[in-house]
C-alpha cells in the first residue's frame, strides 16, 4: 500500500493511544458518561470505576500523546492498567495481528499486507486519526552552515548507492567534514514514510544508526557534531534548545521550518502527516475499559497533543471520530 505522501490530500479525523504488552481482562462496569472538564482541561470518563487493562503498543512518534492520555486516564480510572509499549508502528501491528494488544499506535496508515493478516486472524478493527505531525530533520546545534535542504539533497544523502560521506558531497561550499546519520528503525512508521516520500522505495544507506526509540536518535545527533537525523516534531520541540532544525524546500521552492502553523496548513510538505491509532472492534465491544480509554483519548487528544508538541485536529474531526467509535463498539 502506498502511504499518503501529500499532506494536503490526507483527511484527518481522530484520536489516540498508548501502549503495553498483553490484553486486559474484563471490567466491573460498562456504564460511563463524560463529565465536565477538570482543572487540567481533560475530560473525565465516568463516575463508575473500571478494572482490567488496555493492551497498547506501536509508534514511538505517537508515544508522547499516548503517554499523556494514559497518565490522565489513570487519574480518573486508577484500577485500569494502560502502560506504553514502543515497538514501532510495524512492531505494534505485529502484536495487534497476534491478538496481544487492543490498540495499536501508528505514524502511517496500515499496509495492505497487515490488513490482510488481520483479516486472516479474524480481527476487525477501526482506524482513528489523532493529530498532525511534521517529520523534523535536525542537525547538531553547532552546525553553522546547513541553512536548508531540498528533497533531492535528502535523497542523495540517505541513499545506500550514493557517494555522500561528507558535507562537501552534499553541496559545494560546505566543509569536507564527515556526516553521521541517525534514522528511525525498520519497524518504525516514520522509516516507512521516509522510504516512500524521500527515497522513493530505494534502499537506505546501511551505515545509518537505526532505532525505534526516537530518544536514541535525539541523543545521537546531540552528541555528534556531524550528526543528522529525522523524527516526529514533538521530539524536536522537546529538545529544541539542543538541536538545530533544518528548513526543507517544499514543492513551491520555499524553504519551510516545521512549526504549528506550517504543519497545520500543509506548507511544510511533503513531511507533514497524520498520526493514528487502531482499535480492535471486539475489544471495544467486550472490554468496557478499552472502550472508555479510546473514548477518553478521542475526547482529549486535541488538548494533550498540543501539550506534548503536536498539532490537534479540528473539533469536528474529533466529533466524527467519536461517532465512528460508537459505531465500532455496537
Tell me what the structure shows.
The protein has 11 helices and 14 strands. The protein has 330 residues and is of the alpha/beta class. It folds into 2 domains: 181 residues, D-Maltodextrin-Binding Protein, domain 2, CATH 3.40.190; 122 residues, D-Maltodextrin-Binding Protein, domain 2. The strands form 4 sheets. It has a 5-stranded mixed beta sheet. Strands 8-7-9-6-10 form a 5-stranded mixed beta sheet. Strand 11 and strand 12 form a beta hairpin. The longest helix is centred in the last third of the chain and has 20 residues. The radius of gyration is 20 Å and the shape is elongated.
The side-by-side strand order for the widest beta sheet comes to 2-4-13-5-14
In CATH terms, what is the architecture of the largest domain? 3-Layer(aba) Sandwich
Gross morphology is elongated
What is the count of DSSP helices, taking H or I runs of 4+ residues? 11
CATH fold group of the largest domain: D-Maltodextrin-Binding Protein, domain 2
CATH superfamily of the largest domain: Periplasmic binding protein-like II
Helix content: 25-40%
CATH class designation of the largest domain: Alpha Beta
Whole-number total of structural domains: 2
Low-confidence stretches: 1-41
Number of strands: 14
Rg measurement, Å: 20 Å
Biggest sheet: strands, sense, closure? 5 strands, mixed
The whole-number mean of residue pLDDT values reads 88
Signal peptide: 1-19
Keywords: Cell membrane, Lipoprotein, Membrane, Palmitate, Phosphate transport, Signal, Transport
Pfam family, one: PBP_like_2
Main location: membrane
Amino acid at each position: 500500500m502506498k502511504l499518503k505522501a501529500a499532506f494536503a490530500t490526507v483527511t484527518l479525523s481522530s484520536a489516540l493511544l498508548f501502549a503495553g504488552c498483553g490484553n486486559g481482562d474484563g471490567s466491573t462496569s460498562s456504564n460511563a458518561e463524560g463529565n465536565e472538564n477538570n482543572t487540567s482541561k481533560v475530560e473525565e470518563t465516568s463516575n463508575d470505576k473500571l478494572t482490567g487493562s488496555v493492551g497498547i503498543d506501536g509508534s514511538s512518534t505517537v508515544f508522547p500523546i499516548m503517554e499523556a492520555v494514559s497518565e490522565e486516564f489513570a487519574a480518573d480510572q486508577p484500577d485500569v492498567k494502560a502502560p506504553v509499549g514502543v515497538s514501532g508502528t510495524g512492531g505494534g501491528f505485529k502484536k495487534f495481528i497476534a491478538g496481544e494488544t487492543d490498540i495499536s499506535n501508528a505514524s502511517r496508515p496500515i499496509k495492505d499486507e497487515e490488513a490482510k493478516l488481520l483479516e486472516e486472524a479474524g480481527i476487525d478493527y477501526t482506524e482513528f486519526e489523532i493529530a498532525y505531525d511534521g517529520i523534523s530533520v535536525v542537525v547538531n546545534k553547532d552546525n553553522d552552515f546547513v541553512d536548508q535542504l531540498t528533497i533531492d539533497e535528502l535523497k542523495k544523502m540517505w541513499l545506500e548507492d550514493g557517494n555522500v560521506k561528507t558535507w562537501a558531497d552534499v553541496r559545494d561550499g560546505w566543509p569536507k567534514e564527515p556526516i553521521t546519520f541517525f534514522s528511525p528503525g525498520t519497524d518504525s512508521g516514520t522509516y516507512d514514510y521516509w522510504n516512500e516520500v524521500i527515497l522513493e522505495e530505494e534502499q537506505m544507506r546501511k551505515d545509518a544508526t537505526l532505532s525505534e526509540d526516537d530518544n536514541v536518535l535525539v541523543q545521537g545527533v546531540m552528541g555528534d557534531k556531524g550528526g543528522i537525523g529525522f523524527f516526529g516534531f514533538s521530539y524536536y520541540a522537546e529538545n529544541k534548545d539542543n538541536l538545530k532544525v533544518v528548513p526543507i524546500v517544499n514543492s513551491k521552492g520555499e524553504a519551510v521550518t516545521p512549526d504549528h502553523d506550517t504543519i497545520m496548513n500543509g506548507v511544510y510538505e511533503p513531511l507533514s502527516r497524520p498520526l493514528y491509532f487502531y482499535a480492535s472492534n471486539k475489544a471495544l465491544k467486550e472490554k468496557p475499559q478499552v472502550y472508555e480509554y479510546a473514548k477518553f483519548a478521542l475526547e482529549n487528544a486535541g488538548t494533550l497533543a498540543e501539550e506534548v508538541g503536536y498539532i490537534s485536529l479540528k473539533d469536528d474531526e474529533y466529533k466524527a471520530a467519536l461517532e465512528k467509535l460508537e459505531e465500532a463498539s455496537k
